[in-house]
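Sample intake — SurA N-terminal domain-containing protein
Collected from: marine metagenome
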Amino acid sequence: MLRNITKSKIGIVLAVLFAISLFFIRGGKRYSNLFDSDNVVAKVSGTPISTTKFDRTLQMNINQFNQILGKSLSRKEIKNFQIDSLALGALINDAVFENEFDQKGFKLDETIIAQKTKERIPRLYKGNKLNEPFLNQFLQQQKLKIEDVVQIIDFETRDQFFNEAFFNINYPMNFTKKIYAHERQTRKIRHTEMPLELVSIEEIQTSVGNINKVLEDFYNKYLNEYMSDE
């Protein structure tokens, strides 16, 4: 896949934009399994979920649980919490949307992906030169391959655009003011307090067969106290 990328526009754009030759540099094996094949955990309508992405997501979830619980989870606890299922479920959910984006023809220009890559990982380059030690460290820490990085940035950029376009709704100013006033309105409520001793539980229990009549009499007796000026 990496060798195919070099022949595509994104490979050319990355090389021109960042002045690097990522896939033709000497000692390619210095990078974390950069040219090795990767297994696929699952495929969602043709969209693959690689083992590297799964391992990374799983470790992120484990770290979150560790932070919340204030301790390192054991293998048994990880299994009991079904953290592996949570990780796979999240990746499947992303893959469903990614596949839907592809089917609908919602794709990004390679220059956008290249620019977002530089924005997300600014330390990857020093001037116009590739920061090789950082690249190796980054891939090892993130447990990713370069194609996973490109795929993640591609999906997250499209997902962000989709959410902003469809869910960040900007209403006209006058309408927004009405919504704001409605959500933050306050009301003065008048109510009548009744001492608990006025309620006879025993009487109600003995009159359970005629409860409707008891409630009606009670309502009529205190009706005027419930009336308001509204």
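Post-analysis note: Residues 83-103 form the longest helix (21 residues).
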